[in-house]
């Protein structure tokens, strides 16, 4: 008597069933919206934490992040509105997570930066070990998308701590910190464009740097003059950044110019993870 064939695990099937790609094409507009969202996350987090009980603000930020992520996962494909809503909510909650480490727990910025860097490295190791790639050109299953968003959250938290480290611990201030990160982000861009560096490494390096760059610019615009800022206030900065994000995401949703097309090793030989 032959044994009955093993039934496939239903959860595993749902997590690994391939479908449409779930992240946008990486072009100039991607980096612009990403930078705006990181800046808005910084200002929105500061506004909420100072405008209400910090514990309530963190809980609300977490719930908003979970709701946005649920919408994106349920879509099962890239949608400009749900994707960028998720990024903005990660920006808000990631900032809060990094700030809690320093303000509530008293962890120094160098230690919190190292801690979140370790978490990010762990996510990348697990992602690569399970999926065999870190390429955004292959994020077409729920499991890969969960790894992707885990990496995004870690980059936001690490970038927030890194920006605070340069501004406060190194006493560079917001404007100088922004200038430093603006120069640093050119390194992976130049390496990819002219030196043939690994595209996945360049992408994630630039992705991490956009966080402290955007946060430093937001703090420089919103914080008081006696704190090396322009004194515009967090609320006006949030409104201005929010309007800019809505305008750009509306453009992307209408034109669908950033919807990725599936690629293969033959069509995109630059990406070693696809070979």
How would you describe this protein?
Helix 2 (28-51) packs across helix 4, helix 5 (109-131) runs antiparallel to helix 6 and helix 6 crosses helix 9. The chain has one domain (25-255). With 275 residues, the chain is mainly alpha-helical. The protein is built from ten helices and no strands. The termini are far apart.
What key attributes describe this structure?
globular; 275 residues; 0% strand; Membrane-anchored protein; DUF347; transmembrane; disordered C terminus; 10 helices; membrane
Topology:
Elements: H1 10-16, H2 28-51, H3 54-75, H4 80-104, H5 109-131, H6 142-169, H7 173-184, H8 186-194, H9 199-222, H10 234-255
Helix pairs in contact: 2-3, 2-4, 2-9, 2-10, 3-4, 4-6, 5-6, 6-7, 6-9, 7-9, 8-9, 9-10
């Amino acid at each position: 008597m032959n044994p009955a064939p093993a039934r496939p695990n239903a959860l595993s099937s749902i997590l690994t069933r391939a479908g449409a790609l779930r992240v946008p094409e990486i072009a100039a507009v991607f980096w612009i919206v990403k930078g705006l969202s990181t800046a808005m996350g910084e200002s929105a987090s500061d506004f909420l934490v100072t405008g209400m009980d910090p514990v309530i603000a963190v809980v609300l930020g977490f719930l908003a992040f979970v709701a946005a992520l649920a919408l994106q996962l349920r879509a099962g494909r890239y949608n400009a509105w749900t994707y960028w809503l998720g990024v903005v909510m990660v920006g808000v909650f990631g900032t809060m997570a990094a700030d809690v480490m320093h303000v509530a727990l008293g962890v120094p910025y160098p230690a919190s930066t190292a801690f979140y860097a370790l978490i990010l490295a762990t996510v990348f190791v697990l992602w690569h070990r399970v999926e065999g790639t870190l390429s955004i050109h292959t994020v077409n299953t729920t499991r890969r998308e969960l790894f992707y968003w885990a990496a995004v959250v870690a980059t936001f938290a690490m970038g927030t701590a890194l920006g605070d480290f340069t501004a406060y611990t190194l006493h560079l201030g917001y404007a100088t910190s922004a200038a430093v990160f603006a120069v640093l982000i050119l390194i992976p861009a130049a390496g990819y464009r002219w030196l043939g560096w690994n595209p996945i490494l360049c992408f994630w390096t630039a992705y991490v740097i956009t966080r402290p760059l955007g946060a430093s610019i937001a703090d420089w615009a919103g914080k008081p003059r006696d704190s090396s800022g322009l004194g515009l206030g967090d609320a006006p900065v949030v409104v201005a950044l929010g309007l800019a994000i809505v305008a750009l995401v509306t453009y992307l949703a209408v034109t669908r110019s950033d919807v990725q097309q599936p690629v293969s090793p033959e069509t995109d030989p630059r990406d070693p993870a696809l070979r």
